[in-house]
Amino acid sequence: MAAIPLRIITLNEVQKHNKPTDLWMIIHDKVYDVTKFCHQHPGGVEVLIDCGGQDATEAFRDVGHSDYALTMLNPYILGEINNNKPSETKSFDDVKNNNKEEGTKMGLLLPRFSIYHINIFIIILLIICIIIIQLIKWGNL
Ligand code: HEM
């Protein structure tokens, strides 16, 4: 079965959607509406708002997102960008530097403590507990 062609969206149109309540961005020439997703983003909502209405390809790549992160994008696709030449794209460093002063004040430059971090913390805690239980069983403690 032939794939349904994606809606063609102009950069002008994307640029209008740059608010937390209406947030679009371009990643790899595809346009995504991440309004609903942004509050679940493991890297925090602020970095996404900062890329709102823009091409976030480089910033997305700079962070070294997992394949899982790529698949998470699928439900939010709106269409594809209509430019023939590559659009101007912000790197993750640009995003950080643009907001250096304000970001530092608000503590936004550090990734927020999220469910993603809590999961890693719980896994490490579990491993430590298992090691302690084993040591007690073997009479080392
Ligand atoms: C809208 C598309 C995006 C999706 C679906 C997404 C998804 C994710 C996911 C699943 C993670 C957890 C780590 C992983 O699995 O890779 C993550 C972490 C992160 N993301 Fe994104 N992301 C998006 C866009 C962005 C953009 C545009 C930026 C930067 C401006 C960014 C910055 C970060 C940061 C800083 C982390 C935390 C990395 C860490 O704690 O080690 N993300 N993101």
Provide structural commentary.
With 141 residues, the chain is α+β, with helices and mostly antiparallel strands. The chain has two domains: 103 residues, Cytochrome b5-like heme/steroid binding domain (Flavocytochrome B2, Chain A, domain 1, Roll); 29 residues. The protein has seven helices and five strands. Strands 1-5-4-3-2 form a five-stranded mixed beta sheet. The longest helix is centred in the C-terminal third of the chain and has 23 residues. Keywords: Heme, Iron, Membrane, Metal-binding, Transmembrane, Transmembrane helix. This is Cytochrome b5 heme-binding domain-containing protein. It is found in: Membrane. Belongs to the cytochrome b5 family.
Helix/strand order, N-terminal first: EHEEEHHHEHHH
- Class based on secondary structure composition and strand pairing: alpha+beta
By DSSP, the count of extended strands is: 5
Q: Quote the beta fraction.
A: 5-15%
Q: Widest sheet: strand order?
A: 1-5-4-3-2
First-to-last CA distance: 64 Å
Average pLDDT? 84
Subcellular location: Membrane
Keywords: Heme, Iron, Membrane, Metal-binding, Transmembrane, Transmembrane helix
GO molecular function, one term: heme binding
Family: Belongs to the cytochrome b5 family.
